[in-house]
Design brief:
Helix content: 25-40%
CATH architecture of the largest domain: 2-Layer Sandwich
Number of helices: 12
Mean pLDDT: 86
Strand content: 25-35%
Number of strands: 15
Number of domains: 3
Radius of gyration: 22 Å
Oligomer: single chain
Structural class: alpha/beta
CATH topology of the largest domain: Nucleotidyltransferase, domain 5
CATH class of the largest domain: Alpha Beta
Order of helices and strands: EEEEHEEHEHHEHEHEEEHHHEHEEHH
């Protein structure tokens, strides 16, 4: 945890609540550039039972308040993110209408057939992918015999990204932030927070691979829009378990060994060579899910690019040795560790510390940047 900088007029808190702990970042807008003021995080201790932070709303709110106090946050304005595993996401195509309000019933009619819960029990948000205003040149020219059905569909239909979550989950967020005495300005999705922090204005087709403590989230982004999101129950804890099985160490020592490996990688002290076999076995289920996601993306009707151009890895376990190199070799793609601090002004002397913790802070950073776009 670190604290630096004084009070700023316009600053926002990005708060990422997950099974592995809470991460927060406070950013200020200084001359159009996001500037870090402070940060903090809590972690699950080895041997501590894995529980959802939403099963104990009061406890989570109190932990968040304590974390804000320890980090010395100044702002009370906060952004949060819904976990990918709890968010309904769909991309649909609906007939184009002159007014946006005319399209809402069309959206609801399609989405109601897809959601796991009745629409009345959910809060949904729609993002139009295509321009709502019909291209005047295209309209004047009309469709020629040589134009494809896809071109006709693009002219007469618009694509919509619909995200939603259960009202009961959203209410728990509201209660947590109320207990922590914070003003919840907005609830985003983890996918959009990661895009903001790691992708920026890059319009290529990118896979974001967020390897967390308990889960790994996969997001395929096309022109800044998350077209595909998946979440699997595999994360850094699987590496700890593998170390325990092969070494006979208790959980706390196995966890420490994993952290030492990650720390050595972050500071450039890892020996050359391939990924340690103990880690490769833990990465195999993630690799399988990546390849499956590629297949799904290629077959999606409403995408344009079909093939992923590069992969960005993030999350607390992305600093394990040779992770980008391993996936790059297996996928025959360029794979990079994401740098969520790249678009944020940070003190030079704190850069090594922030680089080490950076991957686990990606979502929190993207949330704090939300009002600065």
């Amino acid at each position: 945890m670190g604290l630096f900088g004084g009070a700023k007029k316009d600053s926002y808190l990005g708060i990422d609540i997950g099974a592995g702990g809470i991460k927060l970042v406070e950013l200020a807008n200084e001359k159009g550039r996001a500037t870090v003021l402070t940060y903090g995080y809590s972690v699950r201790q080895p041997g501590e039972a894995v529980t959802s932070p939403f099963d104990d709303v009061k406890g989570t709110g109190e932990t968040l308040a304590k974390l804000c106090d320890q980090a010395g946050t100044k702002s009370k304005r906060a952004m949060a993110a819904l976990p990918i595993s709890s968010v309904f996401t769909a991309i649909i195509s609906i007939p184009r209408r002159k007014e946006e309000k005319e399209m809402k019933p069309l959206i609801d009619a399609q989405v109601s057939k897809l959601t796991p819960l009745p629409l009345s029990d959910m809060i949904t948000y729609s993002t139009f992918i295509d321009n709502l205003k019909e291209d005047k040149t295209q309209k004047a020219q009309g469709l020629t015999p040589g134009q494809t059905a896809a071109a006709a569909r693009k002219k007469d239909y618009v694509r919509v990204l619909v995200t939603g979550a259960a009202k009961s989950l959203v209410q728990k967020y509201i209660e947590i932030f109320k207990i922590a005495k914070l003003e919840l300005q907005a609830i985003d999705t983890e996918a959009f927070a990661l895009i903001r922090a790691l992708v920026g204005k890059d319009k290529s087709s990118i896979m974001l691979l967020d390897i967390g403590s308990m889960r790994t989230n996969i997001t395929i982004v096309e022109k800044g829009i998350p077209f595909l999101t998946r979440s699997i129950n595999v994360g850094g804890s699987a590496v700890t378990k593998r170390i325990m099985e092969q070494t006979g160490l208790p959980e706390d020592q196995a966890e420490q060994m994993k952290m030492d490996l990650a720390s050595a990688e972050a500071t450039g002290q890892t020996a050359a060579g391939g990924m340690p076999a103990i880690l490769e076995a833990a990465m195999q289920p993630i690799l399988n899910e990546i390849n499956y996601s590629f297949q799904l993306y290629e077959k999606m009707e409403l995408t344009e690019m079909k093939r992923v151009e590069k992969v960005i890895v993030t999350g607390g376990s992305s600093h394990l040795p040779r992770v980008p190199e391993y996936f790059s070799e297996k996928l025959n793609l360029n794979v990079y560790r994401g740098d969520p601090w790249a678009r944020v002004a940070v003190p030079h002397d704190l850069r090594p510390v922030l680089d080490e913790i950076g991957p686990r802070m990606s979502i929190a950073i993207g949330l704090a940047m939300r009002e600065m776009d």
